[in-house]
Amino acid sequence: MNRRTWLASTAVALFFASGCVRVETTTVSVRDPQQVEVLAGGARVSLPAQGPTSAPVSTGRFAQWLSLRPYEIDVDRKPGGALALRCDACGDAGWMPNRTGAVREDTLLDANGALATTWSRSVTSDASWTRVDYDRCMMESSIGSPPTSICDVHARLALLVPASDVVRVEKRSVPVRPLGWGALAVGVGLLAVSTFVLASSDIGSFGQRAPWGFGIALPALALTGWGAWLTFAPATDEVTVR
């Protein structure tokens, strides 16, 4: 593969990669929150449409010093139909050196009919229902060096919305900014190296330096442009109103 073909292949690869390194989220809004049902463990949760009322969705244990503390996660139906996860044991958990956060209550559906935003891949629809899956973390810790976050208490469930109750679906796509920052930094660094190679007479004649300098500069320019696009490209929104 000659240099021109390699450079063209790199540019094409970066162009198509730009469409793959995006974070896509979806927010569903409903007309009547009381029509939204809860699915946990593969079965519908028995939860009256009118609150206040609650039902358990999962149980388990989390580490608290030298013991394992039991917990129960409930889903609360509030007046007006709003839904929220509640873990009293998580909220009451004491301090631990590696614990980075604990949540007592996590709203999934507010009184205005807006479901909590989630990954677009977690939203599926057919002619009868729209299903929104959630994997919420009620307690998290960090381990290792550098620290890595892990979830100690998961809440996995889905909200089922009748198709006739969906009034708005908003999809948002945002480039992965941290990847753009990294690509931009590497590209600028390579451009600095190529400039040094082309300008330094100690390395050899310009004819000897040029293949190396331009060989570094051309992919560096492509990488810098790609990183700049990921860093500064605006988010895109797609709204469907029913």
Structure description:
There is one protein chain. Helices cover 29% and strands 42% of the residues. The model has no long low-confidence stretch (mean pLDDT 88). Strands 2, 3, 7, 10, 11 and 12 form a 6-stranded antiparallel beta sheet that branches. The chain is of the alpha+beta class and 242 residues long.
What does the radius of gyration come to? 26 Å
Low-confidence stretches: none
Beta-strand content bin: 35-45%
Structural class label:
alpha+beta
Task: Note the main sheet.
Answer: 6 strands, antiparallel
Number of helices: 4
| pLDDT averaged residue by residue | 88
The topology string of helices and strands comes to HEEEEEEHEEEEEEEHHE
**Terminal-residue CA separation:** 52 Å
Q: Give helix % range.
A: 25-40%
Q: Tell me, what's the shape?
A: elongated
Number of strands: 14
Question: Helices, strands, pairings?
Answer:
Blueprint: H1 3-18, E1 22-30, E2 37-40, E3 43-44, E4 53-64, E5 67-77, E6 83-86, H2 88-92, E7 99-102, E8 105-109, E9 118-119, E10 123-125, E11 129-143, E12 148-162, E13 166-175, H3 177-199, H4 206-232, E14 236-241
Antiparallel strand pairs: 1-9, 1-13, 2-3, 2-12, 4-5, 5-6, 6-8, 7-11, 10-11, 11-12, 13-14
Helix pairs in contact: 1-4, 3-4
The gist of it:
This protein is of the alpha+beta class and 242 residues long. It is 29% helix and 42% strand.
Can you tag this structure with a few keywords?
242 residues; 14 strands; 6-stranded antiparallel sheet; 4-stranded antiparallel sheet; alpha+beta; single chain
